[in-house]
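Record UPF0102 protein J2792_000368, 116 aa.
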Amino acid sequence: MNRARAEAQGRRGEWLAGLYLMLTGWRVLARRVKIGVGEVDLIARRGRTVAFVEVKWRANAAALDTAIDARRLARVARAAQALAPRYAGPGDDVRIDVILIAPGRWPRRIVNAWQP
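=>
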């Protein structure tokens, strides 16, 4: 798959993940936030919980099993740590979630995927 097509599929996956979050009671605060230490695909809030969400889209469900690894999560964690003061207030719970998306499948969510 060429780079432009992969980028378009990734953006579609992020859009679908945002929709999934909204349908499950979350409010999406930001999309594709880039800073020097990394990038967060979605930042969402539900009540006193702020989730920094990494979204992975793959062409088939089997490929989702290897879509996320510790290195990628660590990069998201660094970005989340830098961004947390902007999106989370005192007393808020902050966590990193992963949403895995493949065509013809319901999104699979890994709650609190990063625990240092």
